[in-house]
Amino acid sequence: MGDMWMMYPDAGVCKMIGLLFHEHDMAVSRTVMREYFLTYEPELLRQQKVNRLKHCRFWVAGVNDIWAIDQHDKWLRFGLALHTGIEPFSGHILWTKVWHSNRNPQLILSYYLESVEFFRYIPMITQSDPRMENFGVANAQTLLHQMHDPTLEGFVQHRWMHAKKNIKPEIAWSQLRQHFSPGFEVLLEAGMDAGWYDPDNTLQLMVFHWVFIPWLQVELNNYQDHINHSAKRHDNKKASLP
């Protein structure tokens, strides 16, 4: 548990049960885990009860009606940039990528095309913030639809979301910030404070990218696999169209 707390210091009861199962093949009952938290982490339990998300209405016709994509810049101070794609109806994470930039349209397009090749289908609509790096996805999504349905010529098959209306990826980033980021940020900040890594030093930055990005991508893949294979909490407010 000590190693798990170092990497996931804010994980709650359910999250820690899932992490132990996916990363260490350990099946721990909710009762046992809750007793552990009550004994060793009572303050964390209290914080988990206080933090509540506000319910917002999000319209989606069904699975693969929308793929929502978004970038995450909170780690730019370390020289790292994140990007994700979400299938909102199921909550499935299509990709979570780390690189030294998330502003390259060709790079973002490669994430989309990699998922299309893997799943062997495209969504009805893609959506994103109105930023330059998302133009490649918008153009490719529109082109692929028009190739299969010429009557769509002149219609863009991408939705531009303004004023933080791209809700589902924002929720995914919030969950990652809570459950994944803290332990890694402590590790990165400790290295910077100790003088092991200076993002302003070009040589150190390039070596850091060469060593750290592949390792962090593996950890993000494990996190994505854990989220995608964990049962979602039942939502009484979620309704399906007839």
Would you mind describing this structure in some detail?
This protein has 242 residues and is α/β, with parallel strands linked by helices. It has 2 domains: 1-48, no CATH class; 61-227, Ribonuclease H-like superfamily/Ribonuclease H (Nucleotidyltransferase, domain 5, 2-Layer Sandwich), CATH 3.30.420.10. The chain has 9 helices and 5 strands. The chain has helices spanning 2-7, 13-24, 30-40, 42-50, 105-119, 135-148, 167-179, 181-193, 202-228; strands at 66-72, 81-87, 92-99, 125-128, 158-160. A 5-stranded mixed sheet has the order 3-2-1-4-5, with helices on both faces. The mean pLDDT is 84.
Helix and strand element order: HHHHEEEHEHEHHH
Mean pLDDT: 84
- Major sheet description: 5 strands, mixed
CATH topology value of the largest domain: Nucleotidyltransferase, domain 5
The total beta strand count reads 5
Beta-strand share of residues: 5-15%
Strand order of the largest sheet: 3-2-1-4-5
User: Helix amount, in percent?
Assistant: 40-55%
The CATH top-level class label of the largest domain: Alpha Beta
CATH architecture of the largest domain: 2-Layer Sandwich
**Gyration radius over CA:** 20 Å
Q: Kindly name the structural category.
A: alpha/beta
Overall geometry comes to globular
Uncertain stretches: none
**Number of H/I helices:** 9
Instruction: Provide the number of structural domains.
Output: 2
What's the arrangement of secondary structure elements?
Layout: H1 2-7, H2 13-24, H3 30-40, H4 42-50, E1 66-72, E2 81-87, E3 92-99, H5 105-119, E4 125-128, H6 135-148, E5 158-160, H7 167-179, H8 181-193, H9 202-228
Parallel strand pairs: 1-4, 4-5
Antiparallel strand pairs: 1-2, 2-3
Helix pairs in contact: 2-3, 5-6
